[in-house]
Design brief:
alpha/beta; Urease, subunit C, domain 1; five-stranded antiparallel beta sheet; 439 residues; TIM Barrel
């Protein structure tokens, strides 16, 4: 069994927690659902684990809508470089030498960081994805794990064969994951996946009713190259070849999207796509533009937040991502009212839950019990004039408890289902080995 059986299966009562509306409530969790949010204690509510929360804020946990989790092993390895040089001279050569166990160890390390930052669900695209699925499930975390399409140097038959093998192995892990793991279809990008493979990817996703996760409009070079080769911008090209399909409406997750224009936004909006905004990675790699949040929202595009990989972000922290997302909109468009704190918080919670078809993103009866408890005595949370503003603009080192799918994973700031030190030490040794072997 992949799912860690040490994770508590008992009901949970969170007593006297503060909610974001500054009201207090008792939150009762049974199974993987919130069964009550009330001022009173229901009969039998004292059974199971009790968490005293009088000095804690209960909020929905965060969803990381785009990442490459195992790249945590490459944190700090190749900083301050132009994007194409970064990829061709540093990232791709070392990735070619990664093994299955490296992905497992790197993903588990990433999951530890995400959980301690209040992220209980992530959308991943990387090598050996079934190992990422195993690592995520073992720590009791939700993972949308992409079976990867890359067709550079491969025949159509080889690319499809490799993809199907990945998808099958992710599904095998998902079957034993207590519904934590979901496979997705993940063609990397229009410049790394041939037209025929892109069409197959969309057909496969539609047939199997799964989400489709892809990079899109990340750089000007991507857009210019697409226009030169296909006489169309990237989203227009995808529409022209039949990649955008009615039966996949609401199931597209496109990462980045900072170079989308009005016509492309209208196209993606027609298919109710989500765009995963990764502001820290975009700024660090200097992709040359900022997401046009108002344009996307006005075209019915669901905007969510992602960290991207740790090699281009250096952390997996949704508090940082929320703050930078809000500040970038204000700075780039010279308007301090753009992307306010409440809107930003929704990107990382409720909007993201909608993108991934999860009844989550709220602390409310009937919703999934994916909850984090914020320490109101943390320096960054004092004073509490506006709780949401604190969460977006100041919060750090404040995630005291983490609950995912009704299971307590982090208690009093500490992972409780595996030894943190073991995960960290394995990641350190693996990172040192793969970097030393890359030269």
């Amino acid at each position: 069994m992949i799912f860690n059986e040490l994770i508590s299966m008992e009901p949970i009562l969170i007593k006297n927690a503060l909610l974001k509306n500054k009201k207090r409530a008792n939150i009762i969790i049974d199974g993987n659902k919130i069964v009550a949010v009330s001022n009173s204690l229901h009969k039998g509510a004292k059974r199971g684990r009790i968490i005293e929360a009088s000095n804690k804020l209960a909020i929905p946990s965060f969803i990381n809508a785009h990442t490459h989790a195992a790249m945590s092993l490459l944190k700090g390895y190749a900083d301050d470089m132009p994007l194409q040089e970064w990829l061709s001279k540093k990232i791709w050569p070392i990735e070619a030498k990664l093994k299955e166990k490296d992905i497992y160890i790197g993903t588990k390390f990433a999951c530890l960081e995400m959980l301690k930052n209040g992220i209980t669900c992530f959308n991943d695209m990387y090598w050996y994805p079934w190992k990422a699925a195993e690592a995520s499930a073992e720590l009791g975390m939700r993972g949308f794990i992409g079976a990867l399409f890359l067709s550079i140097g491969k025949s159509k038959e080889q690319a499809i064969r490799e993809f199907k093998k990945q998808f099958k192995r992710i599904k095998a892990v998902a079957k034993n994951s207590n519904n934590l793991i979901r496979p997705t279809v993940a063609p990397h990008a229009i410049y790394t996946v041939d037209r025929e493979i892109l069409i197959f990817a969309a057909e496969f996703a539609a047939k199997h009713d799964v989400l489709l996760h892809m990079h899109l409009n990340e750089t000007k070079e991507e857009v210019d190259g697409c226009i030169k080769e296909h006489n169309a911008r990237p989203a227009e090209y995808l529409h022209k070849i039949g990649f955008l399909r009615n039966e996949l409406s609401g199931k597209y997750i496109f990462a980045h999207g900072v170079w989308l224009n009005e016509q492309e936004a209208a196209l993606l909006g027609k298919y109710r796509a989500s765009v995963a905004h990764c502001p820290i990675s975009n700024m660090k790699l200097a992709v040359g533009s900022a997401l046009n949040f108002n344009l996307l929202v006005s075209n019915n595009i669901n905007v969510v937040l992602g960290t991207d990989g740790n090699a281009s972000n250096n952390s997996l922290n949704m508090f940082q991502e929320m703050k930078i997302a809000a500040l970038l909109q204000k700075f780039y468009y010279n308007d301090p009212t753009k992307l306010n704190a409440s809107q930003t918080f929704q990107l990382a919670t409720y909007n993201a839950a909608n993108a991934f078809k999860l009844k989550a993103g709220k602390v409310a009866e009937g919703y999934l019990a994916d909850i984090i408890l914020i320490d109101l005595n943390a320096i960054s949370m004092v004073p509490s004039h506006n709780l949401i503003s604190n969460l977006v603009y100041s919060a750090q080192n404040s995630v005291r408890e983490v609950i995912c799918n009704g299971r307590l994973l982090v208690e009093n700031y500490k992972l409780i289902i595996e030894k943190e030190e073991k995960i960290i030490n394995e990641a350190r040794k693996t990172a040192e080995r793969i970097v030393s072997n890359s030269f």
